[in-house]
Recover the amino acids of this structure.
């Protein structure tokens, strides 16, 4: 069961060969066994989870089940879920019980899905290894000495270790796709504005986007059918008609034009990862695709631009964590200013503080034009690069991350090396484009472990259905996405 | 040296919308603390702002009323600073691109001493939409529910009911040259925002708050002096006092060889003085940047036309109409259009059938006098426009005399009651039966032969004396015009 597609789980549930309670219990058992080691979940609430499973069984019995009814999902702890502790990976919110549901949570609830628990993440989604979480790092199921990527590291490990049927994530600069590459599963960051940000704790508002993290493109399509949709509570939500993201899965790829940006295959890309990507491209040629050489000339500017804009927005978004109304407040303080300073000094971790400082700096009088405004101008140039490229091709392909999973602690003292993890993913966030990472093969590590590597597919705005088709066709002729890590046995 | 004061105003008008600027929480005043603080008002993690379309309509209305530029595109920005009653740690406002651009307001500055009244155009720099902050409550005894809880002694409370309330901040050019001009502008603006129905104008509840920038310079020079901003002015009287004090203080400081430091000052109504609250050097760097949670606001020609269709007739237009349509003097028309309620009262009185000139006289005369004495607004008049109109019609229909009408007015003002019943009860109905009047006149003529002789000898005064006798004999009830007419006939016979 644990390696089944969402579609086959749905079929089994509706045929009543398994109940949602049984399925949910099976995942909870695996969580009990492996989570103490992997640390994928921050919060579990079995009573709530099983109550949802029972409700789902009743709905199935009543014959009113939807595609995802009764299926257990893991939710990134960035989504407010009513009655659940919602931490965003931070000490600041370690005691915060959300009094309302994020739109994503409401959509899964309405579909009758089961919430298995809230998954670990880099603090306020700031990180590429899950090591900035106040609740501790997450182990990569393929090699426990390595990171799962980030910021959606808990969801990533939960999907890879089959501690859930699938999970949600968010992606501000690569936080779905880089962990998908490092943990070997399929993750999609939709077009900006397609999934409501309401109730999703903000990191960088103009870049944040929620998306599915699952075994296959077909699973992602089913989840997108639930997650995507206009929400009047989010002013940046796009009033785009509802789509069936599964509709084009079976289309042939004959004549598909795939653009390969030469900047994505230059210095900085691990040669063994490059080989995996090249092999995947060969496979696409066999499927009838045509390969086109393209250029995204401003790629090298994407990281500096991102590290001006994202911290600028974050510095303001995180101002509400002041110890006044909710969240962490210092136990002892002399006056108001002291309360602010101590509460924030204690409540935020080092990476969050670093970004608040950068953001505050670039927005300050005298620096705004040189940093924030300039970065906005370059952001438009980066988007223009893609617009030009999509005149020549249907999708763009390349690596999702420059390397396979790195060792825990390897990059924690070198923020810039950590930031470079997102070199291939960040520009799509800046442009607002959809991007996904699919399992494309394995690279043997120096200590003899098979580590997954992902192929990135970037599509034009609102072209998710085609991207899922492109991914699905590849997954019909390869089985990388079906591979499961062999994990040391946890406690039984 | 002769000095000149230079004044500019920034006015925060609270818009009359049912819900907040960026959420669906209620904006009603006076509720228990934090009962109107939804998840957006309290800035819970994950919430997002959604612009209130009604507030935008209010801004467009104001722009149209002052004949301002209303650009196609305006942008909401975040003004970042920490304060306990600012839940997000930033205020959503408009910075570089406001919803309303340059416009004009014409003010009437009243005569003071030997200076005659005059008109002046005040240029509006901009008006922008923003959200209000909450309130810090340092005296929790003033908040009954919290005080009874007892546990909050010696603490400050935060009430977020007001947080997110829509405001339109209206900024002038430094165009005013006296406290009188500043107050005339503030009063005019106060009336205008109520006239177009975007603000209730309640200064005590903080719906209309003026910050006044004051600087002085040697008369005849161009360069502006260093300004100080006076805050916390919740009446026009205080505004006048504060500006006068501040002007004197700045002039004295400069004449004593001192320098003015840019600062925010508070007016103390107790002492009549202004005092620096904080100097601008300690001021925040607000780190404005466009709010990524909100798209730029677009106001198209069609949007403007839709709002234009909802606009009431503006006071200047109505004044001109009163002059031409009702032949009112410029002074009367101007007085009647000094407030929307007054104008509406007048219009309703006229449309209920009374003569416009009479209605104007009574509204500005008896009614305004009573209201002034009782310090009430026109909306609190115990006599409605319909009642006033009936009263005026009884005069023009010769049912009561003007004097009787005054008595009836007094009675109705004090005790209410139905007009015709009062006329009946007080026996104030005019005698218009020509037979009865003839009989009275015959008696008067018979009783006063000497006066009749005097009249016939050419003494006009005798006629008036006879009228007086006839009115007296009728105990004031005879219709004076009829008395005149019949008496003339009888004497000519």
């Amino acid at each position: 069961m644990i390696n089944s597609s969402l579609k086959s789980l749905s079929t089994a549930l509706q045929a009543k060969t398994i109940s949602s309670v049984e399925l949910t219990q099976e995942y909870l058992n695996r969580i009990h066994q492996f989570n103490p080691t992997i640390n994928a979940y921050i919060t579990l609430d079995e009573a709530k989870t099983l109550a949802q499973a029972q409700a789902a069984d009743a709905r199935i019995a009543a014959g009113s089940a939807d595609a995802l009814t009764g299926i257990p999902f893991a939710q990134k702890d960035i989504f407010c879920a009513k009655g659940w502790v919602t931490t965003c990976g931070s000490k600041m919110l370690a005691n915060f019980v959300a009094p309302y549901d994020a739109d994503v949570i409401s959509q899964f609830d309405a579909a009758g899905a089961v919430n298995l628990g809230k998954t670990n993440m880099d603090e306020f989604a700031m990180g590429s290894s899950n090591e900035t979480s106040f609740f501790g790092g997450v182990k990569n199921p393929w090699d426990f000495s390595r990171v799962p990527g980030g910021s959606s590291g808990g969801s990533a490990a939960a999907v890879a270790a089959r501690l859930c049927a699938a999970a949600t994530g968010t992606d501000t600069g690569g936080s779905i796709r880089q962990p998908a590459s490092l943990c070997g599963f399929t993750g999609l960051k939709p077009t900006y504005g397609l999934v409501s940000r309401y109730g999703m704790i903000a990191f960088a508002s103009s870049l944040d986007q929620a998306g599915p993290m699952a075994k296959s493109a077909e699973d992602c399509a089913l989840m997108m059918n639930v997650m995507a949709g206009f929400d009047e509570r989010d002013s940046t939500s796009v009033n785009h008609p509802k789509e069936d993201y599964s509709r084009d899965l079976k289309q042939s790829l004959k004549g598909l034009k795939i653009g390969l940006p030469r900047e994505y295959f230059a210095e900085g890309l691990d040669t063994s990862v490059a080989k995996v990507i090249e092999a995947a491209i060969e496979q696409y040629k066999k499927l009838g695709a045509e390969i086109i050489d393209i250029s995204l000339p401003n790629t090298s500017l994407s990281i500096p631009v991102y590290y001006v804009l994202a911290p600028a927005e974050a510095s303001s978004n995180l101002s509400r964590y002041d110890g006044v109304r909710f969240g962490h407040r210092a136990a002892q303080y002399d006056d108001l200013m002291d309360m602010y300073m101590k509460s924030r000094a204690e409540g935020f971790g080092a990476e969050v503080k670093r970004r608040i400082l950068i953001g505050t700096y670039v927005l300050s009088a005298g620096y705004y034009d040189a940093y924030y405004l300039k970065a906005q101008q370059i952001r438009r140039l980066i988007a223009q690069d893609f617009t030009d490229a999509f005149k020549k091709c249907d999708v763009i392909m390349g690596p999702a991350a420059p390397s396979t999973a790195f060792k825990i602690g390897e990059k924690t003292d070198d923020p810039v090396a950590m930031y470079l993890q997102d070199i291939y993913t960040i520009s799509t966030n800046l442009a607002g484009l959809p991007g996904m990472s699919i399992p494309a093969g394995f690279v043997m590590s120096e200590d003899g472990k098979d580590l997954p590597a992902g192929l990135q597919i970037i599509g034009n705005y609102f072209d998710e259905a085609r991207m899922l088709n492109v991914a699905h066709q590849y997954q019909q002729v390869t089985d990388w996405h079906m591979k499961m890590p062999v994990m040391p046995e946890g406690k039984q | 040296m002769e000095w000149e004061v230079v004044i500019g105003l920034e006015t925060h008008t609270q818009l009359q919308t049912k819900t907040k600027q960026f959420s669906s929480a209620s904006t009603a005043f006076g509720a228990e603390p934090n009962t109107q603080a939804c998840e957006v008002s309290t800035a819970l993690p994950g919430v997002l702002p959604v612009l209130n379309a009604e507030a935008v309509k209010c801004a467009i209305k104001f722009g149209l009323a002052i004949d301002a530029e209303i650009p196609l595109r305006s942008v909401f920005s975040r003004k970042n600073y920490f304060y306990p009653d600012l839940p997000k740690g930033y205020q959503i406002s408009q910075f570089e691109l406001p919803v309303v651009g340059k416009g004009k307001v014409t003010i009437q500055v009243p005569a003071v001493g030997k200076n005659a009244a005059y008109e002046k155009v005040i240029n509006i720099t901009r008006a922008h939409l923003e959200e209000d902050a909450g309130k810090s409550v340092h005296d929790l005894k003033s908040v009954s529910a919290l005080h009874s809880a007892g546990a909050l002694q010696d603490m400050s409370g935060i009430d977020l009911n007001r947080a997110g309330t829509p405001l339109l901040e209206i900024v002038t050019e430094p165009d005013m040259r006296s406290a009188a001009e500043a107050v005339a502008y503030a009063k005019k603006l106060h009336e205008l925002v109520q006239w177009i129905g975007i603000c209730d104008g309640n200064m005590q509840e903080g719906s209309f708050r003026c910050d006044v920038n004051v600087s002085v310079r040697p008369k005849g020079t161009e360069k502006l002096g260093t300004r100080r901003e006076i805050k916390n002015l919740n009446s026009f009287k205080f505004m006048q006092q504060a500006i006068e004090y501040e002007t004197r203080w700045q002039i004295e400081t400069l004449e004593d060889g001192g320098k003015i430091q840019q600062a925010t000052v508070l007016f103390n109504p107790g002492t009549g003085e202004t005092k620096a609250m904080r100097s601008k050097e300690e001021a925040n760097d607000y780190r404005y940047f466009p709010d990524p949670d909100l798209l730029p606001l677009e106001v198209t020609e069609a949007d403007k036309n839709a709002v234009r269709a909802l606009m009431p007739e503006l006071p200047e237009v109505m004044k001109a109409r009163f002059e031409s349509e009702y032949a009112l003097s410029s002074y009367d028309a101007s007085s009647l259009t000094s407030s929307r309620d007054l104008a509406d009262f007048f219009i309703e009185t006229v449309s209920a059938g009374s003569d416009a000139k009479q209605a104007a006289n009574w509204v500005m005369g008896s009614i305004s006098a009573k209201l002034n004495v009782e310090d009430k607004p026109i909306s609190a008049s115990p006599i409605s426009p319909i009642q006033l109109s009936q009263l005026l019609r009884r005069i023009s229909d010769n049912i009561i005399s003007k004097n009787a009408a005054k008595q009836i007015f007094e009675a109705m003002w004090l005790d209410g009651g139905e007009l015709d019943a009062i006329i009946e009860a007080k026996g104030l109905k005019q005698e218009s039966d020509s037979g009865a009047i003839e009989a009275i006149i015959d008696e008067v003529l018979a009783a006063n032969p000497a006066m009749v002789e005097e009249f016939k000898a050419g003494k006009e005064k005798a006629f008036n004396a006879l009228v007086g006798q006839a009115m007296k004999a009728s105990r004031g009830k005879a219709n004076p015009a009829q008395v005149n007419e019949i008496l003339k006939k009888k004497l000519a016979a």
Q: What stands out?
A: The two ends of chain A are 19 Å apart (CA to CA). DSSP finds 15 helices and eleven strands in chain A.
